[in-house]
Write a structure and sequence with these properties.
The structure is a single chain. This protein has helices at 3-30, 186-200; strands at 33-34, 48-51, 61-65, 74-80, 88-98, 109-120, 131-137, 146-154, 160-170, 174-181, 215-220, 229-236, 239-247, 255-263, 274-278, 287-295, 298-306, 311-313, 317-320, 331-335, 344-351, 354-360. By secondary structure, it is mainly beta. The chain has a five-stranded mixed β-sheet, with helices on one face. Strand 20 (331-335) and strand 21 form a beta hairpin. The chain is globular. Mean pLDDT is 77; it is low at 6-31 and 200-205.
Length: 369
């Protein structure tokens, strides 16, 4: 082979390899954007309801988490007891699995005890916070569910940022305070969207929608490592943007990296009324359930299944729900109510002066770990 031919062959091989690498990287990045929709996840169409404790109240925040590290979800009620100050308290109704009256004898269902454990929360939030969101999650991987206050703040210098005030669960006996600023790169992208709504109001949204229909925050174990991560969601037309802030190693509060994802055309010009992060397939990674419109006794939901590399969108579906009283107690959520390792669709509400936990059981076949 002549020297000229050899150089041409070498040059061809070089560009072939470079082109291959570019195509591979493009495909790799493309994995993070998803548009192919799969069949709906199966839930029981008709809901079942169980009574809630009579002492359950109209709390500022109601959440669910493992209070005493026994592997069972407990119900948290969080509220400020002082009208003119800040005196937060958590009331815990412990969960236990037992046979429901009239239920299948082979199935145990989650009930919440009538006995209440009340514990003060040593936390102070900013008086000038525009948005304060309260969540229940295990933020340090110790198995005990903590309480997190997420704030959007404006400092006296005009700086706008996010801030976390944690009440860390001390082995189910008390809570300890810890605060931290939020300073990862992805925060700025979210803040730009957030500030757009705060400063411009509804100038580019449907008149029936609010900021909360476009912007959501939640906590969940997104990679199956046992630590709950912080996740931000925001809407751009029909597309859902997801920013996952992966938690530090167990025992440390905070985040060490972030990943961005998008799911195209999943919102279909409908309201984004609620988002829950729970494991709906039983594989140890938490998926994304989006609740869209609801009309009386029907809710429209769809599920984005966490693959470990992104989120597989499934077609939406409707669920029958109870038409609870409109004001006060009503809440939608997700957790495993039948002890099968998969989260179910939960609807709390009040009917005829009684409080109930209504649920549609998840019928998706459990993924083998």
């Amino acid at each position: 082979m002549s020297e000229s031919s050899f150089k041409k062959l070498a040059l061809f091989f070089f560009f072939f390899c470079v082109g291959g690498i570019l195509i591979f990287n493009a495909l790799k990045e493309h994995k993070r954007s998803f548009t192919l929709y799969k069949a709906p996840i199966a839930f029981e169409k008709k809901p079942t309801k169980l009574p809630l404790p009579k002492s359950a109240s109209y709390a500022e925040k109601r959440g669910f988490g493992d209070f005493n590290n026994d592997g069972i979800e407990d119900m948290y009620e969080i509220e400020d007891k002082d009208v003119f100050g800040q005196n937060y308290e958590v009331r815990v109704f412990k969960g236990e699995y037992k046979k429901a009256e009239g239920a299948d004898s082979t199935k145990e269902l989650l009930h919440f005890s009538n006995e209440v454990t009340s514990i003060p929360l040593p936390v102070t939030v900013s008086w000038f916070s525009n948005l304060t969101k309260i969540d229940v999650a295990d933020v340090n991987g110790d198995g005990y569910a903590d309480v997190i206050f997420s704030e959007y703040r404006v400092s006296n210098t005009g700086k706008e940022d996010l801030f976390f005030a944690y009440s860390l669960n001390q082995a189910g006996k008390s809570f300890a305070s810890q605060k931290t600023d939020f300073s990862l790169t992805g925060e700025q992208t979210f803040l730009q969207a957030l500030l757009g709504f705060i400063h411009q109001g509804n100038s580019y949204s449907n008149s029936e929608e609010s900021v909360s229909d476009y912007l959501k925050m939640d906590w969940g174990d997104m990679n199956g490592d046992g630590n709950e991560d912080f996740v931000m969601f925001w809407r751009q037309y029909e597309n859902l943007h997801i920013e996952v802030f992966y938690a530090n190693e167990k025992g440390k509060v905070g985040f060490d990296r972030t990943e961005s994802y998008s799911v195209n055309k999943t919102l279909k010009n409908r309201f984004m009324r609620g988002i829950d992060l729970e494991d709906f397939t039983g594989d140890g990674k938490q998926d994304i359930l989006i609740r869209h419109d609801y009309k009386g006794e029907e809710s429209i939901v769809n599920l984005l299944v966490n693959t470990g590399e992104g989120f597989d969108p499934h077609n939406d579906f409707s669920l029958n729900t109870h038409d609870f009283d409109l004001f006060g107690f009503e809440k939608y959520d997700s957790f495993d109510i039948d002890k099968d390792g998969k989260a179910d669709f939960i609807h709390l509400g009040k009917m005829d002066d009684k409080k109930f936990c209504s649920f549609n059981l998840n019928q998706y076949p459990k993924t083998e770990l």
